[in-house]
Design brief:
The complex is a heterodimer of chains A (288) and B (118). Chain A is of the alpha+beta class and 288 residues long. Chain A has seven helices and 15 strands. Chain A is globular and about 60 Å long. Classes of the chains: A alpha+beta (288), B alpha+beta (118).
Chain lengths: 288, 118
C-alpha cells in the first residue's frame, strides 16, 4: 500500500467541515473536482466548526476492495472501485440529513431571488431539470437534499450532479484533463459549476414554489397545478426530515405547501420545461 | 373491527393532522410510530375530524349526514368504513374501545347493522 497521503477539502457540510484523506492521487483529483462547489475557504469558513475526516484507502496490490473511515471509525471496507466516489457522496448526504432538521429529497434552483424546490423520487428527472436550469441562467441551490430553515427557507447543498452517460447534461460538461474515469464509470459526478457559471446563493432563500418533475417521453411537456393535499402527500413521501424528526417537520412542510404554488412539470423537452418554469416563477412573483 | 353506536373514537396520541382546502377538505394524518402519512378523502376527513374523543359514533353519523346531506344509512356506512380504515391503520386510541370491542369472543353489534336496523 502506498504511504503517500493526499488531502482534499475543506468541504462545507451543514455546520461541519469535511476533509478527504486518501492514498490515491487519482481519487484525490476526482474528489477535488467533483465536490469543488462544496469547497470552503480556509481559514475564514472553518473556524469553530466540527471537523470530519474521511479516510479513503486504496487496497494493496492484488486486492480490489477500497475502505472508508470517518474520524477513525470504519464506514465501509468492501467498496468496489467504481463506487467509492458515490459512497463518499452518500456519506456527505448522511451528514446533511443528520445535522439538518427539515429535509426533503429534492433539488432546488434559484429564479428571481427565490428557491424553487424540484421534488420527486429517483428517476423523476429533478437532477436533470436542476442541471439544465442552472446551465441556462438559473441559480443552483441543492441537489438530492433540500434542507429548510425554521422559517422554511431553502439552504444550499451544492453537491455534484449525477449525470447519466448519454444524458442531456453530459454533453454540457467536460472532464478536465487528468481525471481518471475508473471512479465514475456508470455516472458522471459533475460539479454544477462545470455546466456553466450559475449563481450559487450563500444565504437561505424563501421558497417560490414546489415543482414535481416527471419525465415522460411519450407525453407533451406541460406544467399543471397540483392540489395542495396531493402536493403535501408527495412531499411527505420524499421527506426524510419527517421520518427523522416527526411532527414538527410534518407541520412545517404542511405550512410551506399551503403557502406556495405547487406544480407538476411533465418533461420531455428540457428547453420547453425551462420556459414553463420561468413563466410560472414570473407569475408567482406577480401574485406574491 | 365492529364499533358500537356508543363508542367514542379518539385519535391515537401518536397522530398529527393537517387539513387542506382543495375545494373539499382533505386531511393528512401523520403517525409518528410508523412515520407514515395517510391522506384521507373528504368523507373520511370529516369523520376523522369528528373523532374528537367526545362524540360518539351516533353523533358522528348525524354530523356526517348533515354536512354531506346524506341519508342515515349512507352516512352510517361511510362512518363505519372510515372507522375500519382508521382502526386498521392504527390511528385510533385503543384505550377508548369498549371492553366488548376488544374481546374477540364477543361479537359487538356492527354499527352499520344497528343503524340499518335500529
Amino acid at each position: 500500500m502506498s504511504s503517500d497521503r493526499f488531502q482534499v477539502g475543506p468541504f462545507g457540510l451543514a455546520d461541519t467541515v469535511a476533509y478527504v484523506d486518501t492514498n490515491d492521487a487519482d481519487f484525490a483529483a476526482i474528489t477535488e473536482w467533483s465536490f469543488r462547489d462544496l469547497a470552503l475557504d480556509e481559514p475564514a469558513d472553518i473556524s469553530g466548526k466540527t471537523t470530519l475526516t474521511f479516510l479513503v484507502i486504496r487496497p494493496n496490490e492484488g486486492q480490489d476492495r477500497w475502505g472508508m473511515w470517518l474520524n477513525g471509525e470504519p464506514r465501509q471496507t468492501m467498496l468496489a472501485e467504481d463506487y467509492v466516489l458515490f459512497h463518499l457522496q452518500w456519506e456527505f448526504n448522511n451528514v446533511i440529513l443528520e445535522r439538518r432538521h427539515a429535509t426533503i429529497h429534492a433539488a432546488a434552483i434559484e429564479v428571481g431571488g427565490r428557491a424553487f424546490i424540484l421534488c420527486g423520487s429517483s428517476m423523476s428527472g429533478k437532477t436533470t431539470l436542476a442541471g439544465w436550469m442552472a446551465a441556462h441562467g438559473a441559480g443552483y441551490i441543492a441537489d438530492e437534499i433540500v434542507a429548510l430553515t425554521d422559517d422554511s427557507r431553502a439552504m444550499h447543498y451544492r453537491r455534484p450532479l449525477g449525470l447519466r452517460h448519454g444524458g442531456p447534461l453530459e454533453r454540457l460538461c467536460a472532464y478536465p484533463p487528468g481525471i481518471d474515469r475508473r471512479f465514475d464509470r456508470y455516472e458522471m459526478l459533475a460539479p454544477v459549476s462545470a455546466l456553466g457559471d450559475p449563481a450559487m446563493p450563500e444565504e437561505p432563500l424563501a421558497v417560490g414554489g414546489i415543482v414535481f418533475p416527471r419525465f415522460d417521453s411519450d407525453s407533451v411537456t406541460r406544467l399543471e397545478v397540483v392540489q395542495k393535499s396531493v402536493a403535501f402527500e408527495r412531499v411527505c413521501e420524499n421527506a426524510p426530515g419527517i421520518a427523522n424528526n416527526g411532527r414538527p417537520v410534518f407541520h412545517q412542510i404542511a405550512a410551506l405547501v399551503r403557502e406556495v404554488p405547487t406544480f407538476e412539470l411533465v418533461t420531455t423537452d428540457l428547453a420547453r420545461a425551462r420556459q414553463l418554469l420561468l413563466s410560472a416563477a414570473d407569475e408567482t412573483t406577480v401574485s406574491a | 373491527m365492529n364499533f358500537g353506536l356508543d363508542f367514542v373514537p379518539l385519535p391515537h396520541a401518536a397522530t398529527a393532522t393537517e387539513i387542506f382546502d382543495d375545494g373539499e377538505f382533505v386531511s393528512a394524518v401523520f403517525d409518528e410510530r410508523t412515520t407514515k402519512v395517510h391522506r384521507l378523502n373528504p368523507t373520511a376527513s370529516a369523520v376523522w375530524v369528528a373523532c374528537d374523543g367526545r362524540s360518539s359514533v351516533h353523533n358522528i353519523v348525524a354530523v356526517l349526514a348533515e354536512v354531506f346531506d346524506l341519508g342515515p344509512s349512507v352516512a352510517a356506512h361511510s362512518v363505519g368504513e372510515a372507522l375500519e380504515v382508521f382502526w386498521a391503520a392504527g390511528l385510533l386510541a385503543t384505550s377508548q374501545l369498549p371492553p366488548e370491542a376488544l374481546s374477540p369472543e364477543d361479537a359487538p353489534t356492527n354499527v352499520l347493522e344497528r343503524l340499518h336496523d335500529p
